[in-house]
Specification:
mainly alpha, Rna Polymerase Sigma Factor, Chain: A, Arc Repressor Mutant, subunit A, 2 domains, elongated
Length: 176
């Protein structure tokens, strides 16, 4: 997604017209990112709104419009992680063990399910599993980076990923 330099400059001047254009250009794609981290649509909407507030507040720190796409995505992902971290205070879902087994979800199962069905499965995972799965599988973070972002050990990240995959396999076996 690309916006014009004029729209970018309008955003830097806090002009509502530019902010609206930027929001319209990125909101639907970033909402998809938020949905992967959230339990439901309402939570995803909250994350998206909070993320765009941060985007508009910090846009002046961006040095070039060329890096806007990645910068916006990184803010949305970090906002989702921060939201998750706040929720974690109320949940104790982190395991400190690591299971070395790792099996992949069958490709056939993924091709049969719709995007919405996969999203519902992902949203049904416990918050810790969901966050690690998203960061590792979709965003491409390493377990060390995930540990630093979430304030957990590298081995806990590995364990959470293994458990997320195991939970997904269990759900998929019931569906298929």
């Amino acid at each position: 997604m690309t916006i014009s330099a004029e729209v970018f400059d309008q955003c830097l001047r806090n002009e509502p017209r530019g902010q609206e254009a930027l929001y319209k250009a990125y909101a639907s794609r970033m909402f998809g990112v938020c949905l992967r981290y959230a339990v439901n649509r309402a939570e995803a909407e909250d994350i998206l709104q909070e993320g765009f507030i941060k985007i508009f507040q910090n846009l002046s720190t961006l040095h070039t419009i060329d890096s806007l796409d990645g910068w916006i995505r990184r803010i949305i992902v970090n906002t989702a992680i921060n939201y998750y971290s706040k929720q974690l205070k109320f949940q104790n879902d982190v395991s400190l063990t690591y299971e070395s087994q790792d099996a992949t979800i069958q490709e056939d199962a993924l091709s049969i399910l719709s995007y919405n069905e996969l999203l519902r499965i992902l949203q049904g995972l416990p918050a810790g599993y969901r966050a690690v799965f998203n960061l590792y599988v979709i965003e491409g973070y390493s377990h060390r980076e995930i540990g630093e972002l979430l304030g957990i050990s590298e081995n806990t990240s590995k364990s959470q990923l293994w458990r997320a995959k195991a939970s997904m396999r269990k759900i998929l076996s019931r569906i298929l």
